[in-house]
Amino acid sequence: MILALAAVGGLVVGSFLNVVVHRVPRNQSLIRPASHCPACAAPIRFRHNVPVVSWVALGGRCADCRVRIPVRYPLVELATAALFVAITARFGVSWALPAYLYLAAIAVPLALIDLDVQRLPNKIVLPSYAIGAALLALTTDWTAAARAIAAMTVLYGGYWLMAVLYPGGMGFGDVKLAGLLGLFLGWLGWSSVWIGTFTGFLLGGTVGIALLVTRRATGKTAIPFGPAMLAGGLLAVFAAAPLANWYFSVLYPAG
User: Fold this and answer.
1) Domain span holding position 152
2) pLDDT score of 255
3) Is there a single domain that holds both residue 238 and residue 112?
4) Among residues 93, 121, 150, which one ends one of the domains?
5) Is there a single domain that holds both residue 62 and residue 101?
6) CA atoms lying within 13 Å on the CB side of residue 6
7) What angle do CA 161, 162, 168 make, to 5 degrees?
8) What is the pTM of this model?
9) Where is the protein localized (predicted)?
10) For residue 113, which phi and psi values (nearest 5 degrees)?
11) How far apart (Å, rounded) are the C-alpha atoms in residues 244 and 252?
């Protein structure tokens, strides 16, 4: 029952995140005007605003002008629902659950916006420091809270240094995101911090090499790093311990 509620909540939140992804980079209000077709500006009727179902029922087209609605819209809703179910299964009904549901919710638009416009908006990242800290404080685990603050400081400082020394390879949006991920991963433990950070670099490097090999990018092409950081952080939330054991076995094989 709890997982089913998480799935429904994820679909609803995912529908809102589509608005965030579209409007935040354009500095538009998230409230007004009401949801409408970008092509013909016709308001979206309430019955056409049901996550996933409406897209399928309309055949992926606007009910008024019949312009195609990108398949990314229902995929975002489904991905958010899947993340909410996974997070709920991971933490159960606990005081930590709201904090990590929030992390999952902001990870989706941040990754997509970074892919679209190569920017991690301050409007999402900066308030999330206060919101994340407040939600984690609900757990009243002050040892974990102190570790979270320390990890936030370490990752922010480390990424800031990299951005200063190598400005072409690291943006200050990545720096601010690193501190935020440090807050959430630090609460879980130092292994989550290191695994999340290392996995982010591993994923980012792998994608970069793949793009170079397939000639879809050159050495001067700016490649968004935020999605890799977020993916690494979420992987650490779910699997820090087994990933740490695997990394260790690769570095120090038995026998």
Assistant:
1) 94-255
2) 53
3) yes
4) 93
5) no
6) 24
7) 130
8) 0.92
9) Cell inner membrane; Cell membrane
10) -65, -40
11) 12
pLDDT at 4: 96
- Residue 223 vs residues 116, 147, 204, 209, 232: alpha-carbon distances, Å: 11, 31, 9, 11, 16
The CA distance from 30 to 200, in Å, is 30
- Indicate whether 164 and 62 sit together in one domain: no
**Pair 60, 185 in one domain:** no
Last residue of a domain, one of 65, 93, 121: 93
Q: How far apart are CA 92 and CA 88, in angstroms?
A: 5
Q: How high is the mean pLDDT in each 10-residue block of the chain (255 residues)?
A: 95 96 93 83 85 91 89 96 97 96 97 95 97 96 96 96 85 95 96 94 90 78 90 94 79 68
The helix (run of H) or strand (run of E) holding residue 9 is helix 2-23
CA–CA separation, 176 and 162 (whole Å): 12
Query: Which residues make beta-bridge pairs with 68?
Result: 61
Q: What is the largest CA-CA distance in the chain?
A: 67
